[in-house]
Write a structure and sequence with these properties.
Blueprint lengths: L11 H7 L11 H13 L5 H10 L2 H13 L6 H22 L5
Helix pairs in contact: 2-3, 4-5
């Protein structure tokens, strides 16, 4: 009989039992895993490399904000397109804030 772990940790065997090695056999970095999970959530596994690139190059808060926006859009027909649109909007806002904060003397 196994004793319950007070720290909430799981045995390694249980973790490996739930891990899907076929889908994630080429994932070795955190940003790749994040990009893959994002593609999965948006239902766009054909472009998982694009989401991995986003996860590597774009700030994570920007991606999370776009992801939450899509998650809240219940009636979205194409979640991937909505995500791309929101990322573009957020990047424009970020650029506008950066350029607007410059004070000329």
């Amino acid at each position: 009989m196994k004793a319950k772990n007070d720290r909430g940790l799981q045995p390694l065997g249980d973790i490996l039992k739930n891990f899907d090695f076929d889908k994630k056999k080429y994932i070795s970095r955190e940003f790749q895993d994040y990009g893959y999970r994002l593609a999965e959530e948006l239902g766009d596994l054909k472009r998982k490399a694009l989401y991995m690139k986003f996860a590597k190059e774009l700030p994570r808060p920007l991606l999370e904000e776009a992801r939450c926006f899509v998650k809240d859009a219940v009636n979205a027909r194409n979640k991937a397109s909505l995500f791309m649109w929101k990322v573009t909007q957020l990047k424009k806002e970020q650029k506008k804030k950066k350029n607007g904060s410059v004070i000329l003397k």
